[in-house]
């Protein structure tokens, strides 16, 4: 517990004690003033007593001396001076009696002195009267009696006694006054220093407490600010969780990867405002990733198509972050001019589910990147990967339900569903698409000669051949009976004709081992139609290719006819 807190209970007592001491000091000072005033009065009183005594003694001596001078010289001046002493003696004798009223001893001495002085003055007056009436000789005789001398000795003794007594009193009073003065000084010093010390301790305690209060206040403000920040962060996190939850729900309802990508673009824009990027899907061949959706705005741009080798995230199978503390080793599919790229950050998160690379989420933006964005992007990528995996599994199941069990190729329903999608995709990108229709020649005769089972084996062999000669992105299907169709996205007429020729030649050299007998080879006729020149809808393209196929049959079979002009492939 801090010292200031320990002192708090004693603070009131210290203030009360200080107040008492200060009151005491004030009282002591008043008392000392009174004491000094009283002492001064006493000292003054002693001096007045001593002064009056001295005056009486001097005046009586002067009166004596002048009277004697008058007796011897007869000079009126001396008589006059003698007479001038009389009122002085009278005045001071009366004053001395009054002054000594407080001291019986001195009072008695004063009265005795008054009597002696009066007696002496009467003697002097008698002598002057004799001088004036009977002459100097009689006056001299009167003075020679020695009575006057004795009276003067008595007066001297009395005045000495009075003076000695007063000096003793004065010394005692001075000593008492000095003692009292020291006591007052000590009381004042103690009375001032102690409250000052107490007040100093309290002041220091108050200063410490004030400082501690300020620290506590600052700490409280800091705690409030942190609380507010954590509340804002909590709100932001709960909002992000809400969006991610809603996103998961939306992904579950997505029908296609395309749709999932569009939903992802919207969600990332909401979760990571001020950023931009793209969602890529890796082709089944794993050799090319294609941007399926674009979101936000960014100073950087990522290519529409990219080989996995150009992205560190796809290469390493883990998120790749650039900018700030993450370094500046960017993937080569990311571009930006020198100014805009400066200070920008990028984040590539591979879309991986159950060990399979499915695509890529690329995000970039201006300024510093924080861990929160990375976490959000990775959470989105994780959900998207799972959704893509589910969609692809669903697609696989769907595709399997759309496979022809005899040949392993897609069935006609699958072709009808996917030709439309592929056609739209190529149309969107301004790319061509070709359709090849193929029919085994004289299959009825083959069936008749070798049996239906052998016919099945031949159809399975043709299916296998077609699977071997088509790409992953092509759609090879059994259109019906012994008729087949192959959709070649992003393929021109010329390339499609080359592929058709390869197929024709492969079938022409294909034999079937059945019942230990090698059957065949057989031949096939093919018709080729290409978007956009031969038509812009699935129905028209298939019809044109089919029409070309029948023209090939009519032209003698084992050949290829393109939709717009007749051409022998044999
Ligand atoms: N073994 C077998 N035969 C089938 C199957 N589906 C259809 N066929 C037969 O295929 C034959 C088709 O004969 P056509 O339509 O006359 O044609 P083609 O004999 O090949 O003559 P061209 O097409 O004019 O060269 C029919 O006999 C059908 O019974 C099948 O799944 N297995």
Q: Can you characterise this structure?
A:
The protein is of the alpha+beta class and 570 residues long. The protein folds into 3 domains: 3-208, Four Helix Bundle (Hemerythrin (Met), subunit A), CATH 1.20.120; 254-398, Beta-Lactamase (2-Layer Sandwich); 403-562, Alpha-Beta Plaits. It is 65% helix and 14% strand. The chain is built from 14 helices and 15 strands. It has helices at 3-73, 76-99, 104-134, 136-143, 147-253, 257-271, 312-316, 338-341, 371-401, 412-429, 443-450, 452-469, 493-508, 538-554, and strands at 275-282, 289-296, 301-302, 305-306, 320-322, 334-335, 345-353, 356-365, 433-440, 475-480, 483-489, 512-514, 517-519, 524-531, 560-562. The strands form 4 sheets. Strands 4-2-1-8-7-5 form a 6-stranded antiparallel sheet. Strands 10-11-9-14-15 form a 5-stranded mixed sheet, with helices on both faces. The relative contact order is 0.06.
Query: From the helix content, strand content and strand pairing, which structural class follows?
Result: alpha+beta
Number of domains: 3
Shape: rod-shaped
Strands of the widest sheet, in order across it, are 4-2-1-8-7-5
CATH topology of the largest domain: Four Helix Bundle (Hemerythrin (Met), subunit A)
Order of helices and strands: HHHHHHEEEEHEEHEEHHEHHEEHEEEHE
Mean pLDDT across all residues, rounded?
Answer: 87
Determine the fraction of residues in helical runs and give it as a percent range. 55-70%
Low-confidence stretches: 566-570
| Biggest β-sheet strands, sense, barrel | 6 strands, antiparallel
Strands, count? 15
Named CATH architecture of the largest domain: Up-down Bundle
Radius of gyration: 69 Å
SS field, number of helical segments: 14
Span of the ends, CA to CA: 106 Å
The hetero molecules present are: guanosine-5'-triphosphate
| The CATH top-level class label of the largest domain | Mainly Alpha
Strand content: 5-15%
InterPro entries: CHASE3, Diguanylate_Cyclase, GAF-like_dom_sf, GGDEF_dom, Nucleotide_cyclase, Rev_trsase/Diguanyl_cyclase
Enzyme class: transferase
Pfam family, one: GGDEF
Keywords: Membrane, Transmembrane, Transmembrane helix
